Amino acid sequence: MTAESLTEPAVRLALVAAGVFFLSGLLTGVWKYGHIATSTRAAAPAYVDIAHRASLMYSFAALLLAVFASLSAWSNAVDLWSVALPLLFFAVAIVGYVVHGLLRDTDNQFRRPQTIGPLALPRHGLLLLMVALTVAEIGGFVVLFAGVLRRLELL
Fold this sequence. Notes:
This protein is 72% helix and 3% strand. The protein is mainly alpha-helical. It has one domain (4-151).
């Protein structure tokens, strides 16, 4: 990544998201430790642990998106969409994990009936979200990866 790539919107967005996700991972780590320290089982609720680990993993995934966007042969607009869509779903996932961790309403969000606290989700709501997430995350990265392969003259 070069200094001039820091002016590209996709790179800037990915770097800011990496910072936000990493900070989220650090803060949820404190939250997780608080549960471990006070629990008779020395364990945190499932979604507190998941929020912590996912935040850390997504922070590094955001860095990878930043690097690929900085090397991509595509336009700024294509790179921005290819970065923004996966980041949106990373953020939605983290928020969902934090909400489940706060509510302690499940240890498996896919178990039926699917709820968020007292609210029942539509029967196929989570399935539709997972399909959209899959298309956005994989699709966004494939576009960026193709842009890097193009820049390397391998595509």
